[in-house]
Amino acid sequence: MSANKGWWVPPEGEDSVSEKFLRKTRESPLVPVGLGGCLAVAAYRIYRLKARGSTKMSIHLIHTRVAAQACAVGAVMLGAVYTMYRDYIKRTAPGAGEK
Protein backbone atom coordinates (compact mmCIF):
# COMPACT_ATOMS: atom_id res chain seq x y z
CA MET A 1 0.00 0.00 0.00
CA SER A 2 1.35 3.46 -0.87
CA ALA A 3 1.94 6.16 1.70
CA ASN A 4 -1.01 8.49 2.17
CA LYS A 5 0.28 11.99 1.38
CA GLY A 6 -2.90 13.76 2.31
CA TRP A 7 -6.54 13.89 1.46
CA TRP A 8 -6.08 15.00 -2.13
CA VAL A 9 -2.98 15.73 -4.16
CA PRO A 10 -3.42 17.61 -7.46
CA PRO A 11 -1.86 16.17 -10.60
CA GLU A 12 1.55 17.46 -11.66
CA GLY A 13 1.44 20.91 -13.25
CA GLU A 14 -1.84 21.94 -11.60
CA ASP A 15 -2.31 24.33 -8.70
CA SER A 16 -3.33 23.07 -5.29
CA VAL A 17 -6.69 24.12 -3.92
CA SER A 18 -5.21 26.84 -1.72
CA GLU A 19 -3.07 28.24 -4.57
CA LYS A 20 -6.09 28.28 -6.85
CA PHE A 21 -8.20 30.04 -4.21
CA LEU A 22 -5.50 32.69 -3.65
CA ARG A 23 -5.13 33.27 -7.40
CA LYS A 24 -8.89 33.66 -7.85
CA THR A 25 -9.00 36.02 -4.86
CA ARG A 26 -6.33 38.21 -6.46
CA GLU A 27 -8.26 38.27 -9.75
CA SER A 28 -11.57 39.26 -8.14
CA PRO A 29 -11.08 40.38 -4.53
CA LEU A 30 -14.72 41.23 -3.79
CA VAL A 31 -15.99 37.66 -4.17
CA PRO A 32 -14.64 36.59 -0.76
CA VAL A 33 -15.96 39.87 0.69
CA GLY A 34 -19.46 39.07 -0.61
CA LEU A 35 -19.24 35.52 0.66
CA GLY A 36 -18.07 36.74 4.05
CA GLY A 37 -20.92 39.24 4.17
CA CYS A 38 -23.45 36.52 3.40
CA LEU A 39 -22.04 34.30 6.12
CA ALA A 40 -21.92 37.16 8.64
CA VAL A 41 -25.54 38.15 7.99
CA ALA A 42 -26.71 34.55 8.14
CA ALA A 43 -24.79 33.93 11.38
CA TYR A 44 -26.17 37.10 12.98
CA ARG A 45 -29.75 36.30 11.97
CA ILE A 46 -29.44 32.75 13.27
CA TYR A 47 -28.02 34.15 16.52
CA ARG A 48 -31.03 36.50 16.77
CA LEU A 49 -33.48 33.69 16.04
CA LYS A 50 -34.61 33.36 19.66
CA ALA A 51 -35.28 37.10 19.97
CA ARG A 52 -37.56 37.30 16.96
CA GLY A 53 -40.62 37.81 19.15
CA SER A 54 -43.97 37.02 17.59
CA THR A 55 -42.61 37.03 14.03
CA LYS A 56 -43.26 33.79 12.18
CA MET A 57 -40.28 31.58 11.42
CA SER A 58 -40.88 31.76 7.66
CA ILE A 59 -40.84 35.57 7.69
CA HIS A 60 -37.64 35.57 9.75
CA LEU A 61 -35.97 33.19 7.26
CA ILE A 62 -37.12 35.27 4.29
CA HIS A 63 -35.63 38.41 5.87
CA THR A 64 -32.39 36.50 6.51
CA ARG A 65 -32.20 35.37 2.89
CA VAL A 66 -32.89 38.87 1.56
CA ALA A 67 -30.20 40.43 3.77
CA ALA A 68 -27.63 37.80 2.77
CA GLN A 69 -28.44 38.25 -0.92
CA ALA A 70 -28.13 42.02 -0.53
CA CYS A 71 -24.55 41.56 0.71
CA ALA A 72 -23.70 39.33 -2.24
CA VAL A 73 -25.31 41.64 -4.82
CA GLY A 74 -23.64 44.67 -3.22
CA ALA A 75 -20.22 43.01 -3.51
CA VAL A 76 -20.90 42.11 -7.15
CA MET A 77 -21.95 45.69 -7.91
CA LEU A 78 -18.86 47.11 -6.19
CA GLY A 79 -16.72 44.74 -8.22
CA ALA A 80 -18.39 45.80 -11.46
CA VAL A 81 -17.95 49.50 -10.66
CA TYR A 82 -14.31 48.96 -9.73
CA THR A 83 -13.66 47.01 -12.93
CA MET A 84 -15.31 49.72 -15.04
CA TYR A 85 -13.24 52.36 -13.27
CA ARG A 86 -10.02 50.42 -13.76
CA ASP A 87 -10.69 49.56 -17.41
CA TYR A 88 -12.23 52.78 -18.73
CA ILE A 89 -11.55 55.77 -16.51
CA LYS A 90 -8.12 55.01 -15.11
CA ARG A 91 -6.81 53.74 -18.45
CA THR A 92 -8.04 56.74 -20.47
CA ALA A 93 -6.98 59.37 -17.92
CA PRO A 94 -4.43 61.84 -19.34
CA GLY A 95 -0.90 60.91 -18.42
CA ALA A 96 -1.87 57.41 -17.32
CA GLY A 97 0.87 54.94 -18.15
CA GLU A 98 3.21 57.58 -19.53
CA LYS A 99 6.67 58.13 -18.09
TrEMBL record:
Domain called HIG1: residue spans: 2-94
Keyword Methyltransferase: no
Regions that span the bilayer: 30-47, 67-85
Transmembrane helix recorded as keyword: yes
UniProt KW keywords: Membrane, Transmembrane, Transmembrane helix
Main location: mitochondrion
One GO term describing the cellular component: mitochondrial membrane
GO terms, biological process: mitochondrial respirasome assembly
Localization terms from the record: Mitochondrion membrane
Any Pfam family matching the protein: HIG_1_N
Highest taxon above the source species: Eukaryota
Protein name: HIG1 domain family member 1B isoform X2
Organism: Acinonyx jubatus (Cheetah)
Gene for this chain: HIGD1B
